[in-house]
Amino acid sequence: MDYFLTEEQIMIRDLTRQIAEDKILPVRAELDEKEEFPWDIMKTLAQSDFFGLFVPEEYGGMGKGCFELAIAVEELSRVCLGVSTTYAANALGTYPILLYGSEEQKKKYLPDIASGKKLVAFALTEASAGSDAAGVQTTAKLEGNEYILNGTKQWITNGGEAEIYTVIAMTDKSKGPRGASAFIVEKGTLGFSFGKKENKMGIRASATRELIFENCRIPKENIISREGMGFIVAMRTLDSSRTGVGAQGVGVAQGAFEAARDYAKERHQFGQPVISFQAIQHILADMATQIEAARALVYSVARYIDSGAKDVSKESAMAKLFATDVAMKVTVDAVQVMGGAGYMRDYPVEKMMRDAKILQIYEGTNQIQRNVIGQALIKEAAKKK
Q1: In this predicted model, what pLDDT tens digit does every residue of 361-376 receive, in sequence order?
Q2: Superfamily of domain 7-114
Q3: Which residue in 100, 97, 96, 86 sits closest to 59, CA to CA?
Q4: What is the Cα–Cα distance from 31 to 84, expressed in whole angstroms?
Q5: Which residues are catalytic?
Q6: pLDDT class for 316, splitting at 50, 70, 90?
Q7: Whole-model pTM above 0.85?
């Protein structure tokens, strides 16, 4: 379909696709096998100004929005979800500063982020706080001109590799969710260390580690917004970033569909290519339809967010939920279309299926997305009475 992209948006799409096919495609299997962090690819993206895509021009960025970011993330995900996760998680970690940071914080951090000089990570999840974001146990206590952080964050994408971390910690546990605050913590700060690199089923090129805070002292001016705003900062950040996860789903599904379609044209059984069989055509038809529906939803929600809409929780949850469920179904179907070949690591769909599963889990499981949508529907119904 024609989504009426501007010339600039087409340029972003085409340049990202070129980088993905020229730089990522030749090494994606090796990155996955070796669990190798894609620094060289990140440098290429930085040189092409992709880290500044969503950063305002006054801080060295291109001043684009969720929609342009979704276009870029989709194209990277079409080739390798591990690499796209590294890139997209940088945006996730940056959103708290973009949305709620002070002018001083923006001037200090955003130029280095926009240039790709410093990678970012977002730290919310803990052993007891994931879907239950209000269950954060990491604490931040103000002493004089410093906050002292203690606790552990779990499964943090870009952990250990990023230079800047936006961290949610409790400044007043007695207030529950209203006692959470958001902070900027820099790599190398005394008392801030990392756990082991996790060995994952998929997205193995991305780095996932624990963050450990042991009497970690940071300047009090590193708080984002003010005390008690942490939960709001986290939720609004996720509202803005979930179209990116949806775009990941669209991208990996598109890549799997193309691989399965092309294989079905080449694979012969009973004297003809298997794509000539109606059973295969129906699977491919469903895959193509589901991908286009997911893309249309993700794009429309991204544009809705960029329009300045205030409450986008329901719509961003829908985009993430639908597109990532499609990604899982399409990648499984791609393996089925390719049969035994699809199950082998010589072909990309095996990796795509492993990678796609995380999309239904991170940045809020798809069950949590349904909760978000359901609660929004209840509120809407109450307003109409």
Answers
A1: 999 999 999 999 999 9
A2: Acyl-CoA dehydrogenase/oxidase, N-terminal domain (1.10.540.10)
A3: 97
A4: 13
A5: 363
A6: very high
A7: yes
